[in-house]
Amino acid sequence: MAGRRLSPEEQALWKAVARTVRPLRHPKATVPAIAADAAATKVETPVSPRVRGRVPPPRRIDPPAPQRPAPVPVLDSSWEKKIRGGRLVPDLSIDLHGLNLAAAHLRLERLLAEAVMQDARVLLVVTGKPRSHRPLPGESGKRGAIRAEIGDWLGRSTHAGRIASVRSAHLRHGGEGALYIILRRPE
Fold first, then answer.
1. Rounded distance, CA 82 to CA 50, Å?
2. What fold characterizes domain 89-130+143-183?
3. How far apart are the C-alpha atoms of 126 and 184, rounded to whole Å?
């Protein structure tokens, strides 16, 4: 009966019935009587297709992860060849063996400051290799602590903007127990 209109008597009867009806649930917002009459004249609800079997819940769409900018290659192939071939000659070097973390951090900062003052490009930092086996009785198991912290120290350094690259050293300069710090040219 979607196309049929109510006669005035039917409308009066409908209004009388509608006033006596109480809703099962409390409405969140009250609808004015004029809007209710307009809505009663023609309301179409979309028909959803019936699906047989188990209906999966709607998929949750995660927001796209923020994309990191692609790393810019800082060193060209000639630098890479020098590092792999062991032909890189450090301008300054430092050995942090036997120092506690605070003293090693201070000496590294001093080395970076000195390198910036001298316009040095290649620094060699000997940190020592972590022990591959369990510590012997009487030794602390904290070997490799400087190597573990050096990345954070360089990132927080006042000269972090001048650091172009940090690479493992060639066997000639200490291998896994040493690092090359390559500084950018002054601008």
1. 69
2. Ribosomal Protein S8; Chain: A, domain 1 (3.30.1370)
3. 20
Backbone angles phi, psi at 104, to 5 degrees: -65, -40
Q: What are the DSSP calls for 25-82, one per residue?
A: S--SSPPPHHHHHHHHH----PPPPP--SPPPPPPPPPPPPPPPPPPPP-S-HHHHHH
d(CA 115, CA 54): 69
Distance between CA atoms of residues 184 and 113, nearest Å = 13
Q: Which pLDDT tens digit goes with each residue over 78-117? A: 888 887 888 888 899 888 887 888 999 999 999 999 999 9
DSSP SS3 for 155: helix
Model confidence pTM above 0.85: no
**Closest Cα to residue 179, out of 71, 79, 83?**
83
Amino acid at 47: V
